[in-house]
Specification:
- The structure is a single chain.
- By secondary structure, the chain is an alpha/beta fold.
- It has 2 domains: 17-266 and 475-487, Aldehyde Dehydrogenase, Chain A, domain 1; 270-460, Aldehyde Dehydrogenase, Chain A, domain 2 (3-Layer(aba) Sandwich).
- The protein contains 17 helices and 25 strands.
- A 7-stranded mixed sheet has the order 15-16-17-14-13-19-20, sandwiched between helices. The chain has a 6-stranded mixed sheet with strand order 10-9-8-11-12-23, with helices on both faces. A 3-stranded mixed sheet has the order 1-5-4, with no helix packed on it.
- Strand 19, helix 16 and strand 20 (450-453) form a beta-alpha-beta unit.
- It starts with 16 loop residues before the first strand and ends with a strand.
Length: 498
């Protein structure tokens, strides 16, 4: 693979890169197993080969995680020692950020000039989680008189199965794994079979940083082959999953049968509420970004624009102007700002929703494709805006996961809240207003776990991601992540007076 020294143009590799799985501190190379081949979604060229995990590989990984946890080889370290190792992982990610950026570009189709922000966010998550290792507290109760003392201990939950998606492979892994490690858990990680490269490379960096063998195991394979065992194996204490609501329900059912803890970060249909008094230039820029970031493949993306009727026509024109500034094209090109969808199946899905919107009577505007894009064999879908959308339309209700924005209008506060809350999801929302009281009241009334006011997609590791309704159970990131990966133990001590 050709490596650059900074964000810049990238060439397709002359041959696919072979990756290795990590099982009990041992690297299992692609040549040792059947392989999963990953094509670049813009060019159709195979760029990566992962060793396809067998059932035996999974069993070995689960046993290694269980053994490492029960022996306290990691959880038994001081919090200070765990913190130092997590900081070393962060430093190694920074050291290899160019390589990791290129992996994400080649496998996901992210524009090479834009991926560095995600790598920076990844590093920030590992650094922040390292601080939490030393701030995981229990409690004491010296209020029972001279004859008793109460202690509340906080212990790691144990072995965590982590199943992560293809859209933000390294970043979403880093919203889970470092927080679980900070409190002493062990893990088996299964990234998406479409984009496993950065997770498998991370496994090598973890070993280099000094994570003991067996504490983290990373394997590549499909959910169809490995999912049930990852969720139901006796070695597993908790499942942490990011992906579709449909799969999240299945995981919840499997976990429920065995009373395992779950953390499910699922789908979204986030609304941007734009009031007439807002900074409309900034709002138009961020609404366009929210609908098209990562080619619209983001669960927190702002895919519904709920705009005050008096400004709707002018504001939609401003959003279309912002979208027109995008350069859709080859993600290997530094000038590209929007790449392809991850797969042909995803393209087919998104185009189906676009066709459905037209059949329902919504008015479609799409960015015109240039010849360079048309000449590429990849899975490109042009950014699309639908106006004249009614809340009950399919394009306004279901998660599309592509660069498609549905526009709805409102006349007053109550109508805006009703429209925003009219889907089954509750992941994120954006509010645009210069009136503080309006912003606070929207924040109180909107059914969404994350609400951004006069900004969007500005997440930081200190603030949790929370899903309400069909958007999930539990939360990730922030200091409350400690709650997800720990459980409490009560100790009541009887004392004798002296």
């Amino acid at each position: 693979m050709q490596h650059s020294t900074g964000p810049g143009p990238l060439k397709l590799p002359e041959k696919p890169r072979d990756y290795s799985a990590l099982i009990d501190g041992r690297f299992v190379r692609a040549g040792e197993r059947d392989v999963i081949e990953r094509e670049n979604p813009a060019h159709g060229t195979v760029v990566s080969r992962y060793p396809k995990a067998t059932a035996e590989d999974l069993r070995e990984a689960l046993k290694a995680a269980r053994r490492s946890f029960d022996s306290a080889v990691w959880s038994g370290l001081s919090a200070a020692d765990r913190s130092r190792i997590l900081l070393k992982v962060a430093a190694l990610i920074d050291q290899h950020r160019v390589e990791l950026r290129e992996i994400e570009c080649l496998e996901v189709g992210k524009p090479i000039g834009l991926v560095d922000r995600e790598i920076g966010g990844t590093i920030a998550h590992w650094e922040y989680a390292a601080t939490l290792a030393r701030h995981s507290y229990g409690d004491t109760y010296d209020t029972f008189g001279n004859g008793a003392l109460g202690l509340i201990l906080r212990n790691p939950v144990g072995v965590v199965s982590m199943i992560t998606p293809w859209n933000y492979p390294l970043l979403i892994n880093s919203q889970k794994l470092p927080f679980a490690l900070a409190v002493g858990c062990s893990a088996v990680v299964k990234p998406s079979e479409l984009t496993s490269g950065s997770a498998l490379r991370l496994g090598e960096l973890l070993m280099e940083a000094g994570i003991p063998a067996g504490v983290v195991n990373i394997i590549a394979g499909t959910g169809l082959d490995l999912g049930d065992e990852l969720c139901s194996a006796e070695e597993v204490d908790m499942i942490s999953f990011t992906g579709s609501t449909a799969v999240g329900r299945k995981i919840g059912a499997l976990a429920g049968e065995r009373l395992k803890r779950v953390s499910l970060e699922l789908g979204g249909k986030s609304a941007h509420i734009v009031c007439a008094d807002a900074d409309l230039d900034l709002a138009a820029e961020k609404v366009a970004l929210g609908a098209t970031r990562n080619a619209g493949q983001a669960c927190v993306g702002g895919t519904r624009l709920v705009v005050e009727r008096s400004i709707a026509e002018k504001f939609c024109e401003a959003v279309q102007t912002e979208i027109s500034k995008l350069k859709v094209g080859d993600p290997l090109d530094l000038e590209t700002t929007l790449g392809p969808l991850v797969s042909g199946l995803q393209k087919q899905r998104v185009e189906g929703y676009i066709a459905d919107g037209e059949r329902a009577g919504a008015q479609r505007w799409s960015l015109e494709a240039d010849r360079a894009v048309s000449a590429l064999p990849g899975h490109f879908v042009q950014p699309t805006v639908f106006t004249g959308v009614e809340p009950a339309m399919k394009i306004a209700q279901e998660e599309i996961f592509g660069p498609v924005l549905s526009v709805l209008t409102f006349d007053d506060f109550g109508e805006a809240v009703s429209i925003a809350n009219s889907t089954s999801y509750g992941l994120a929302a954006g509010v645009w207003t210069n009136d503080l009281n309006t912003a606070i009241q929207f924040s109180r009334k909107l059914v969404a776990g994350s609400i951004e006011v006069n900004t969007f997609l500005a997440g930081v590791p200190e603030l949790p991601i929370v899903g309400h309704r069909d958007s999930g159970v539990g939360h990730e990131r922030g200091r409350f992540a400690i709650d997800e990966f720990t459980e409490l133990k009560t100790v009541q001590l009887q004392t004798r007076p002296i």
